[in-house]
Amino acid sequence: MTATEREVAAQEIVAESSPGLVKTITRAQATQIVIVLFGLFILFALINPEAFVSVFNFRSIIVNASIFIVLGVGVTFVIITAGIDLSIGSVLVFSSVMSALVMEELGTEGWAIAAVGAVVAVLAGALWGLINGLLVTKAKVPAFIVTLGTMGMALGISQVITGGIDLYNVPEVLVDTVGFGNIFWEIPMLAVVAFVVVIIGGLVLHRSKFGLYTYALGSNLEACRRVGIRVDFNLTWVYVVSGICAGIGGYLSLSLYQQTTIAGNSLTNLAVIAGVVIGGTSLFGGVGTMFGTVIGLLIPVTLRQGFVISGVQAFWQEVVVGIFLIGAVYIDGVRRARASRRSGVQPKQKTIGGLKIGSTRKEGNSEKKSN
Amino acid sequence: MPILEARKVVRTYGQVVALDECDFDVTEGEVTALIGDNGAGKSTLIKILSGTEQMESGDIHFQGERVSMTSPAVARDLGIETVFQDLALCPHLDPVRNWYLEREIRIGGLMRLLGFMNNKLMKSGSQDAFSELGATVKALSVPVGDMSGGQKQSVAVARAASWANKIIFLDEPTAALGVVQTHNVLELIKRVRDKGIGVVFISHSMPEVLSVADSVQVLRRGRRVMTLAAKSTTLEELVGAMTGALDEEVR
């Protein structure tokens, strides 16, 4: 066997040994994070079995996570493109304000008005998503800055419109069914809505061309351009999807809290982004799953609930979530460095949301210059 | 008669003149080698002819008609495919997804409208294409980013070769390859040419150029300075043409 023959054989072996369903699943960050979630469940169940392992407790966890999960669906799309959306919390507020205003104007009660309110909320969210998308793609302003700007704008406009005072006129049918109702037994309607959004989002992300292009854009934007994908069009839609999810979130929030929560969503964006990242979606783009997002967003809620039940101060939740977040990004970085060493090619994007970020970790060799 | 003619193509980057009224021709069913020293403008020319970059002035004629290559999609619609130096693959996607990128097969029925894809058909389709081209891509479900440089290059070359039906541009397709894989790519180039496709091949390896090319066009400082028939040319002549030494002798 000559040296080159050995080399070729070795390469083929490397390529052959990689797949295998079991390995792929165990390696996925989503699986590791499921184990973490289960670990938390077992831990809290051991500490206080009666309170933690109860229908009431699980119902609260699901209800508390539902709105975050809906927002997380949109943010997953955005982060997979190596973008970021900081505006979701404010867009949620804006959508709920718009929806509440229109419903109030129409008389506040009844299903028809509630339906109009839903449409208004979704459209209001989509509008901000469109603004974000166009500014990112056409004006070429980094997503971090664009969404930081619209975060302030959406909240500011909401405050201007309402004078900073929350609106409380929410149709009773909405509160009774979506906000507090169960579809059957103890399954909250809110969770069903979130579940439907997750399923649709997951199907689109993992099965449709739009989903594939979302990964492709985050993986190699220039390659997408060269094969003729309408890069700007698709990227704009990704932000619109995020805006729509925030709009749905605003409507759900209105149903659950029976008011617009103007001051209550200043950290929603960071909580959701943290959950999505803990769920294995890479800030560097090209990697992420809808399943991971759901698990990643259940962890902070479970922690809070668990701490309360165990008699630990709930403030500790923020501390632990912070540790998880940094750990998740650390693992992602290690994995990327390993992958780039193996293939000898440096990952292209070293930016998050269009902002260059420093990295002290060596990732393969320098790029070849074209002439 | 050439299938593609470029005339007086100009492209500058700030102060640097990359292409200075450059001419170029591609002939159907022939391998045209495009050679030149570093910075001669080879890659820039390919990028312009594939719609990836825009020229400042000049004309491109395709099958006798004037065309404006305003985007890569225009070139693709004309049957022109390109293997770029950086391969233009998505590292997080597997070979099948890269293969069909922007050409996905959609499923039938109502879900078709929503852009849902037929993954099974795409997998078998790319499997057939890879084996037909003799490309040694073994694992179809591994992200391309996890593959060796040679495997990646095989994916990129095979992708372009199977979709091209008029012209294929290959910008240093053998740069990262070992001896056996280089041989495979050169054989692939010949097979593609025999299908009647115009092949344009950039390489720094003069023995490769002489073994596979029908004609050689030489760029120097953004201009085509010479067109040679590969048969009657020697290695020394090619090097001389690239560096300008040949002009001196002629003069």
The number of helices of chain B is 9
Side by side, the strands of the main sheet of chain B go 6-7-8-3-9-10
State which percent range the strand residues of chain A make up: under 5%
Helix content of chain B: 25-40%
Instruction: Output the CATH class name of chain B.
Output: Alpha Beta
Radius of gyration of chain A: 22 Å
CATH topology of chain B: Rossmann fold
Low-pLDDT runs of 5+ residues of chain B are none
Kindly provide the radius of gyration of chain B, computed on alpha-carbon positions and rounded to a whole number of angstroms.
19 Å
Q: What is the string of helix and strand elements of chain A?
A: HHHHHHHHHEEHHHHHHHEE
Task: Report how far apart the termini of chain B are.
Answer: 31 Å
The coarse overall form of chain A would be: globular
What is the straight-line distance between the termini of chain A?
Answer: 37 Å
Major sheet size, sense and barrel closure of chain B: 6 strands, mixed
Number of helices of chain A: 16
The quaternary structure here is heterodimer
Structural class of chain A: mainly alpha
The assigned structural class of chain B equals alpha/beta
The percent range for strand residues of chain B is: 25-35%
Largest interface, counted by CB within 8 Å of the partner chain's CB: A-B, 46 and 52 residues
The overall pLDDT of chain B, averaged over residues, is: 86
